[in-house]
Each structure stands twice: as structure tokens, then as C-alpha cells.
Amino acid sequence: MHKLKMLWQQAFPQPIREGFIPRNFRLLVVGPHPDDFDSIGVTLRLLFREGNPLHVLVIRTGSGVEDNYAPGLTLEKKAVIRDEEQRASARFFGLPEAALIFLNPERDAQDQMSETAVNVSALTEIIADTAPDIIFLPHGNDSNNGHRVTCAIVRQVVARQGRPVALFLNRDAKTISMRTDLYMPFGEEMARWKAELLRFHDTQQQRNLATRGQGFDERVLMLNAQIAKELKIVAPYAEAFEVEFYNVAG
After folding, report:
1. Burial 66-100 (b: 16+ CB within 10 A, else e)
2. pTM of the full predicted structure?
3. Which partner from 75, 82, 100, 144 sits 20 to 30 angstroms from 233, CA to CA?
4. Where are the beta strands (DSSP E) in the chain?
5. How many CB atoms lie under 10 A from the CB of residue 6?
6. Domain ranges of the chain
7. In what order do the strands lie in the sheet with 100-103?
């Protein structure tokens, strides 16, 4: 049985904890939008600080930037704003600039990545180059088309490449339903750190305040509180993941 699958033979769900994932496991985050990395920031912080090599692929988009936030800007110029927000949050996180990869994809009418041969080829090359043992990305059972398409492409790529890999599909505010296999519990101090990380995405902070009456930081942490409540754990917050194995025998 491959080392990947041997790690998770216990009953699910179970917590991610110090030493849970070997330090030599390479990690890749695939963000359908700038800010998807930050939504699972507590899990990534633990693994990164333990020494796991980490790369972050950000799919560029100008969607989510309201016209009243940036009047008169094209989608490309809005995408540049979101790029800079992601760079700023990565610096706060402590991620080296060289670990950030920005992909300018072919897009649909909503400025989301579309499922085209060009985009499949681009993700195939990036995943081959970074050679991850674990890929983090939002779950495909989601009302957001960008999440659905990205998840579909990544699944297609890892199945074809033939390398053993685990997908850690995270629960997002727009996830319709998913199984919780692993979760990352955290407390108030880490919640304050995560809120600060999320607020680097000011375009999303202001959009959420205007349209939902709560900040992007509040919205994500409310989901994390809901997950912890559903799991009936002591910690007030948790990030949740469903695990899929590819090319792992046994």
C-alpha cells in the first residue's frame, strides 16, 4: 500500500495535528480565485511551519471587484488588483514570492476559468513541475462555477498523470455538500490571525460588507464556527476537507 493511503486508515473524521503529515510531502494549493488560499490558511500555516514544501497556484480573475470599488477599470485591471491582494496576504503569511504561481487562463463570460484544452494543458504542466503529494482546492460540489471547473480539471489531470496524489477538497461557504474526512480545529487567537489574513483581500471585504452586511473575514469564520459545531468538537472553529486518492493501490 502506498505511503499516502497508509496515513489515513483510521476512522474519519479525524483532526489534522502536528506531525500528522510527513514534512517531506510536497503541497500545492490550487486557488480558483485569489483568496481561496486564505480560506484554509490555518491548515496551511501549520503545515508550512512544520516544513512542508508549499506552492500556491492562483487562477487570475477580475470577477468579484465591484464597479463602485474600482470605477472604470477593465476586468484585466481588476485582476491586477486581486493579484496584489494575494501577494500581500502571502507576504503576511510568510510565503516566498517564488512559491506563488499566477495563471492567466482562458475564461468564460463570467471571467472564470473555463474547461478548455489550453487550461487543462496549463494545469497539467504546473502539477507536473511542482510534483505535489497533496493538492488543496475547493470542493467541486459547489454553486460557484469557478470552483466546479477547477476541481474537474484537477481531477482529470491527476488521474491522467499517474502519480500518487491526494486531493484535500475544502469546504467553502458555497459548498453544497461534502463528506468531512479531516478537519483543522483552531481557537480564538488563530481566528484573529486568519481574519487579518483574509482582510488583505479588501475587494472581497468591501463587496461582502456591501452585499451581505458582513465582512469576508466574518463570513469565512462563521463557516468555520459552523463546521466546529457540526463536528461537536471543543475548539470553536475548524476547516474541513474531503480526501480523494488517485493512483494509490490498495
Report:
1. eeebeeeeeeeebbbbbbebbbebbeebebeeebb
2. 0.95
3. 144
4. 14-15, 27-31, 54-59, 100-103, 134-138, 165-170, 182-186, 237-246
5. 10
6. 3-8+18-245
7. 14-15, 182-186, 237-246, 165-170, 134-138, 27-31, 54-59, 100-103
Q: Helix 75-93 to helix 202-212 angle, to the nearest 10 degrees?
A: 110
* 21-59 confidence digits (pLDDT tens): 889 999 999 999 999 999 999 999 999 999 999 999 999
Confirm if 25 and 33 have CB atoms less than 8 A apart: no
Strands (E), 113-218: 134-138, 165-170, 182-186
User: Which is it for strands 134-138 and 14-15: parallel, antiparallel or unpaired?
Assistant: unpaired
CA 96 to CA 62: how far, in whole Å?
24
Residue written as cell 493579484? 83
Please name which of 99, 108, 116 lies closest in space to residue 58, comparing C-alpha atoms. Answer: 99
